Amino acid sequence: MARILCTHCNFALNTCVCSAIETITNKVKVIILQHPSEEKIAKNTAKLLDLSLTDCEIIKGENSADFSMLNSLPKESTVLLYPNENATCLDEPSSTKHKHITHLIVIDGTWKKAYKILQLTPALNQFRTVSFNKLPKNRYTIRKAPRADSLSTLEAVAHSLSLIEHLNPEPLFTLLEELINKQTQHMPEHVKARYLN
Questions:
Q1: What are the pLDDT digits (tens) for 86-131?
Q2: Residue 186, exposed/middle/buried by CB under 10 A (0-12, 13-18, 19+)?
Q3: For residue 181, which phi and psi values (nearest 5 degrees)?
Q4: 19-196 classified as CATH 3.40.630
Q5: At what angle do helices 170-184 and 153-164 cross, to 10 degrees?
Q6: Residue 172 and residue 49 in contact, taking contact as beta carbons nearer than 8 Å
Q7: Among 86, 128, 167, 174, which is 20 to 30 Å from 104 by CA?
């Protein structure tokens, strides 16, 4: 039997997060390149960003053909959030380059899938990469990541926008907390403890 979904947030009715959604006006357009396998994951946080931010677009795909719209973005003011050796750290106090960012591209997928998208989408190479010198505390406790420097898509975008345009990220973290609460509400206590500690 198919689950009944909320018509607004698109989560199952018993895990609806609508009560915690607060609209946030962001100046920097957020473009999320989402690996198709992420779309159906209940704990995926990209759609929380889409529900909250006034300027956010999710594009599903794996390669250049899927992400052809990248070619229409302004090269000088578009950045890709990806930690490589050439990345500019957004949290470097001396960095003023991020003041001219208009578009932020984020890859939504596991590290392996994100790397694959990067390899199959040469258009991404035309943009500057940005990253963080110091990661904020990971609040996304219900999805285990293999790397210590892992943040959920929501956390990475929230932190980026707070550094680029001084946007208050707290409403996004409140929504993330609501997702965690709803996704763990029916777990046995011993299972919940494993996720939340």
A1: 999 999 876 566 668 999 999 998 889 999 999 999 999 999 999 9
A2: exposed
A3: -60, -45
A4: no
A5: 170
A6: yes
A7: 174
